[in-house]
Recover the amino acids of this structure.
């Protein structure tokens, strides 16, 4: 919690003939993050070379490429499929040998044919597009070409033109553009060209066809219809292949991918003629497991040891270490950046505070319930791991939304009957049983949230600097963070001693010292001390001091965005019910029923729109408050992802 | 200013309610201007950042978090406008 998983650097050395069992064993554990060996003559690695793949690597990669060609042709993706049947590897191996070549041939045949038909279809469409303008002129297409003494112009003009030379001209007025065909003697060609150019003439190519334009268009349309039918047939066949072989294909892909990864692993090791050395990272609590099973697999012919970790120079891979309810939030962390190994991992805090912010913004029982149902219903359609994580985040957020909906007493913008808002009301319109909003209190409440979160961020910043930095810089950096805190609280105390604000301490009544409020003095001292601490670390940072105010005030968005969504909901309700439905219910007529239906439509559409805005607003603004206002105080990120050698098998087994 | 308004109002014989209503109207106008202008400001500011951010993300998807962060920084401006508007209308 609050710290990434502890890692140990493991060094494995053995003779080359043990390479295959070692790789298999490491792959099975799926724990060893390989530190790739780069041939740059590091100390202690003189005479080592990058290894060569195990035998059979190229055949397996060829097979994998074949499988991938098939799966992409019939659009099968492992992520979209629930694993229903697990296939033993031995059975797969024989199946691959027997079935794969034939299947590949079939699919390739079909796709090649399809792409040929596609090209022809595009060709015909192009031809139709070329002929279409000529359809407005009552002349056969043969009449446009084959002349020796005449020049033919065809194209679009903005307006009708007159030519001074003897010519045959046809002008057809169109909706947007006018089409013009001119035939002139070859001698006058240059002159006509000039006239046309001045008139803004855009020439089109003359189709090399014969017969009337309409009949040609009909001919090509017929061809296109036939081709489309053929393509549809091929698609149907591919769909059949897909239905029949999906499970086999995804299992194959997984199996071959694992095989290829294993056979190519030596490319990441350091080797000599007789031995190989692999370095990598393993979670500290698993070191024993891994080394024991390696010793067992090789019959003791291996040397495994834990190397000391050098936190400053080693790029330690980072694996989150969070309780299960905080794990989906890791997705939001990865979007920003993975924490460094030495840094505090704020995932847990985000996983708690993010839903609270979301709820405060979109606090509405109705919307919360809809989102909750959505989060569960979408689970059926979303297969990928990341999508699932996002849905869990949405679920937590919607539960919080329901909770705050009860607190604020809101249901689709209505007040919940008989339930007064527990803290402060957000009801904007009193006509609907609301109580009038407590805007100042809500505003100050959100400012308080900001003050607390930013203070927490600064304290975490102090911890991070104390952990990561050394020497004089460490003291300065820690004190600078303290300085930021001091300036913020100094300004606050000064404000409290000047003005009376709701739900904030009132210092204006303090007995004055030498005519000045002591709060003002304390605040001033804190601000000055803070500025000095900040300037000692970096003078340029002093310019940033106004951001203290803007960052704290930025938390007012929690109320502002929330209120705007309440306002939209209430306006929708007012329009739908008070304006459309209620007046008609007094005396029902046919027109009245129609108007009531319009009212219902407004109600549904309005709330759908508001819900979409609410998800965007609630989600984006909550996460933004974390990214911009909270993380910038302490969090750097940029850690390397822990990517162990191995895979989670879904469709195959040993 | 208020005194002038009162004098003017008394001059043409309007009631106190009318003055109140016109003050409320002024407040509403002010709130509208606050949100509208800050919205334009945010839009202009996000325009450049947004297009650059999309470009950066197109080159490297890992930039998404940082790009989003940069893009939403000017959003604070419109939030300030919204806060001012709410304070005008309800405080």
């Amino acid at each position: 919690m609050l710290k990434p998983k502890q890692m140990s650097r493991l060094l494995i050395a053995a003779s080359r003939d043990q390479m295959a069992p070692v790789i298999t064993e490491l792959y099975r554990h799926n724990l060893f993050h390989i530190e790739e060996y780069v041939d740059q003559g590091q100390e202690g690695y003189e005479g080592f070379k990058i290894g060569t793949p195990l035998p059979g690597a190229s055949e397996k990669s060829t097979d994998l490429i074949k499988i991938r060609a098939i799966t992409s042709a019939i659009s099968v993706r492992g992520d979209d499929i629930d694993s229903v049947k697990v296939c033993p590897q031995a059975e797969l191996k024989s199946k691959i040998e027997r079935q794969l070549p034939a299947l590949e041939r079939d699919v390739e045949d079909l796709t090649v044919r399809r792409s040929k038909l596609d090209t022809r279809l595009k060709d015909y469409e192009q031809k139709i597009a070329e002929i279409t303008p000529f359809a407005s002129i009552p002349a056969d297409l043969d009449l446009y070409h084959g002349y020796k003494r005449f020049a033919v112009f065809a194209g679009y003009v903005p307006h009708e033109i007159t030519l001074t030379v003897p010519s045959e001209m046809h002008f057809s007025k169109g909706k947007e553009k006018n089409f013009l065909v001119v035939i002139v003697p070859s001698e006058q060609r240059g002159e006509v060209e000039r006239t046309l150019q001045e008139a803004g003439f855009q020439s089109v190519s003359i189709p090399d066809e014969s017969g009337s334009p309409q009949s040609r268009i009909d001919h090509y349309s017929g061809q296109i219809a036939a081709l489309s039918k053929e393509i549809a047939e091929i698609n149907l066949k591919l769909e059949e292949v897909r239905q029949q072989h999906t499970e086999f294909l995804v299992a194959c892909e997984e199996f071959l991918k694992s095989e290829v990864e294993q056979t190519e692993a030596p490319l990441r090791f350091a080797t000599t003629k007789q031995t190989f050395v692999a370095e990598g990272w393993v979670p500290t609590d698993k070191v024993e497991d891994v080394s024991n099973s390696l010793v067992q697999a090789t019959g003791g012919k291996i040397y495994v040891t834990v190397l000391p970790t050098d936190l400053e120079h080693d790029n330690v891979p980072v694996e989150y270490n969070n309780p299960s309810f905080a794990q989906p939030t890791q997705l939001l962390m990865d979007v920003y950046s993975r924490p460094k190994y030495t840094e505090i991992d704020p995932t847990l805090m985000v996983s708690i505070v993010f839903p609270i912010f979301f709820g405060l913004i979109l606090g509405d029982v109705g919307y919360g319930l809809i989102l909750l149902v959505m989060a569960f219903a979408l689970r059926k359609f979303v297969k990928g791991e990341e999508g699932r994580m996002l849905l869990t985040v949405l679920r937590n957020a919607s539960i919080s939304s329901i909770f705050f909906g009860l607190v604020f007493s809101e249901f689709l913008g209505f007040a919940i009957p008989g339930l007064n808002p527990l803290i402060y009301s957000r009801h904007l319109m009193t006509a609907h049983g609301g109580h009038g909003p407590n805007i100042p209190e809500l505003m100050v409440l959100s400012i308080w949230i900001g003050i607390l979160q930013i203070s927490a961020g600064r304290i975490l910043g102090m911890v991070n600097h104390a952990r990561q930095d050394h020497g004089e810089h460490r003291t300065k950096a820690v004190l600078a963070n303290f300085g930021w805190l001091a300036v913020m609280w100094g300004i606050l105390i000064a404000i409290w001693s000047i003005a009376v604000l709701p739900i904030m301490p009132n210092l204006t009544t303090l007995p004055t010292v030498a005519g000045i409020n002591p709060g003002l003095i304390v605040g001033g001292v804190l601000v000055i001390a803070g500025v000095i601490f900040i300037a000692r670390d970096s003078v340029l940072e002093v310019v940033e001091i106004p951001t203290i105010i803007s960052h704290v005030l930025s938390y007012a968005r929690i109320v502002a965005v929330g209120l705007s969504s309440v306002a939209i909901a209430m306006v929708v309700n007012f329009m739908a019910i008070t304006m459309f439905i209620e007046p008609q219910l007094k005396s029902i007529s046919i027109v009245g029923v129609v108007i009531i239906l319009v009212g219902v439509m407004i109600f549904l559409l309005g709330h759908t729109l508001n819900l979409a805005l609410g998800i965007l607003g609630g989600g984006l603004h909550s996460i933004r408050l974390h990214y911009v206002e909270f993380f910038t105080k302490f969090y750097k990120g940029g850690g390397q992802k822990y990517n162990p050698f191995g895979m989670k098998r879904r469709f195959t087994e040993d | 200013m208020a005194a002038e308004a009162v004098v003017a109002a008394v001059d043409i014989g309007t009631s106190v309610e009318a003055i109140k209503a016109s003050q409320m109207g002024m407040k509403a106008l002010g709130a509208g201007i606050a949100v509208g202008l800050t919205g334009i400001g945010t839009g202009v500011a996000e325009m450049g950042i947004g297009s650059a951010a999309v470009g950066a993300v197109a080159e490297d998807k890992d930039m998404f978090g940082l790009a989003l962060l940069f893009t939403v920084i000017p959003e604070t401006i419109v939030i300030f406008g919204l806060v001012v508007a709410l304070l005008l209308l309800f405080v």
Observations:
- Chain A has a mean pLDDT of 89.
- The first strand of chain A starts at residue 7 and ends at 15.
- Chain A touches chain B through 22 residues (CB under 8 Å).
- The radius of gyration of chain A is 37 Å.
